[in-house]
Amino acid sequence: MPAKLILSMDGAVLKEYPLNKERTTIGRKPHNDIVIDNLAVSSDHAAIVTILNDSFLEDLDSTNGLAVNGTPTKKHFLQNNDVIEIGKYKLKYLNDQPTQTSAADFEKTMVLRAPVKMPPKEGFSRSPLDVTLTRKSEATAQFNATNSGMAAEASGGQPPAAVVQILNGPNAGKELELVKNLTTLGKPGVQVAVLARRPHGFFITHVEGGSFPTVNGSSIGEQPHQLRDHDLIELAGVKMEFYFKT
Q: pTM score, two decimals?
């Protein structure tokens, strides 16, 4: 069963929402997947990105913010029975599937310094930025990277092995082989994306940040974007090339 959210107010359950999309939006306007028609809720209040069994909550710069289990937060790696609070409304997260990532893994960073040129309105620093890649059980890896070990999808085979190569900054030329089913790239609090390895290819999905990553110079937007051989990714000022190993 996919993870789901139970919407309630004052203890009364209003509706149940299965998290069967990679990106689920919450807000007051009717274009959202979960619509809460209340003035305390922003037009586009929050988003939840779900990759396989793992879900990530992000506040979309809402006016009144949100809390998880009573603690105000801008981003959160959701765990079973977490309660998201938006005004008087509560969304209980239920997931009976074992998660393959931990909150600690989601937060870990790898130093990849590159100049960042973000628009001032985004509120991002123009100073050199630590960008993250993470790979589990490989503390001695050249990248200090940590990948979340995801269970292989049951249907179909797997795509050929692929690599991300850094193109700029001090780490230019270094490579990260995408051997796991989920790779987290970015800097928590600035820009985060995930690369998901699926039977029919690799997909990049925006998780967090005021702007979307680009592929070949074009914004990927909110929806998962399938990567092609030799695509050029730019994430928080770091340029990378995605390619399949031959």
A: 0.56
